[in-house]
Design brief:
Blueprint lengths: L2 H50 L14
């Protein structure tokens, strides 16, 4: 094997490693976006639930009359 073939093979291996790293980073980005979307949805659900709970009244039974 000639020196130039060895260098070319090393370059190809390096490129393959870079491509793999890029794929992994892209997948991590997609996972992070999905996690953020889930967290936002949960926050919106909790916020909606918090504002939909009726406030307690001062009277124990609304049917009681004074």
């Amino acid at each position: 094997m000639l020196l130039r073939e060895i260098v070319y093979d090393e370059e190809l291996q390096h490129i393959a490693v870079l491509k793999d790293n890029a794929k992994q980073a892209h997948q991590e980005l997609l996972d992070a976006r999905a996690g953020l979307k889930t967290a936002k949805a949960r926050q919106a659900m909790l916020r909606a639930r918090m504002f939909s709970v009726p406030l307690p009244s001062n009277r124990s039974n609304p049917h009681d009359t004074i």
